[in-house]
Amino acid sequence: MDFSYPAEVERFRDGLRAWLSENLTDELIAARRPSGRDLPGQEAVFERLRAWNATMADAGWAAVSWPREYGGRGATVLEQLVYTEETTRARAPVPLNVIGMNNIAPAIMQYGTEAQKTTLLPRMMRADDIWCQGMSEPEAGSDLAALRTKAVRDGDHFVVSGQKIWTSLGHKAKWCQLYVRTDPEAPKHRGISCLIVDMTLPGIEARPLVTLNGDSDFAEVFFHDVRVPVEALLGPLNAGWQVATTTLSHERAGAARLYAELELRLHELVADFAEIDGVLDDPVVLRRLGELAVRIKYLEVLCQRSISATLHGGPELTALGTASLAKTVWGEIGQDLAALAFDVLGDRAGTWSDYRLTSRALTIAGGTTQINKNITATRVLGLPRK
Length: 386
Hints:
Helix 4 (about 75-90) runs parallel beside helix 8 (about 255-275). The protein contains twelve helices and seven strands.
């Protein structure tokens, strides 16, 4: 594993740090990510973050990994790594369209028409349009290939019927990258297509879902005989699985956010403990903090191993499998960190109480721990599937 930074990468880092220093305000850091709760002022926070996304886009810092022709910087893997570390440690808000920019945009770049690219990508980058991703269903969560939402060709339209669930910002989205079954007779991986769906079309109903901590960042979305133009097809008919694979494998240095985010949370937790007399003198607390610090450092090495495999032309399966394992480790560390905060602070936990609740989703979101362990077992260790 070799991470030596050439002079041009250090100049990239310096430029980013200088820009963040001049533009990232305490107000934006406090906002970071809007709560989905219907509370006074939340819509103003959402719009403040939308404006921040536009500011970053105008300065060329919104999507550094994108090609220049789509508004990015064509950043190298090392530059992407630096960008992720610096923006995370500066506490910069993640994009409102984080799923769209990291996952959906690469598929549009590869499979989209020229009109789709030039029309949709700039507005996505600026958060002029909010995007969601229609994958999970009540009977098809981590198993995308089991989806049952169907699209039947009728002249110049597909007629879409079905339901999606746990759709991030589905009730706020203008566009949806929707996965549907277009060939019910084909093997389940081969009968799926991908559509770019205008969420204002008649027959679409989005209902916010309230999670354990009171947020409503997710929605369940119903499609009642929605007529979607045929030109909304993204990629070849019945090739949705390939589109999904492209979508989920694009961000080459995004794994750095996993350890950088946890490092930041651990430092914040230690600072909160320091404000209470005697907490940092407790050997049990110190032991648990030390264990978390070691595990986060291990996670950093794991993430960098995945990035190094990409950087130096290592086997693709090594990069994929290591990243999958890193995601599993990240979720487990996050839950243990939240538990320590709650155990020690109790009724003084404040925002840590909220993190204690949201941390339960860390081993589910972005691929469940069980699925990721199967990927590690079969694709890295070479174990049999049964």
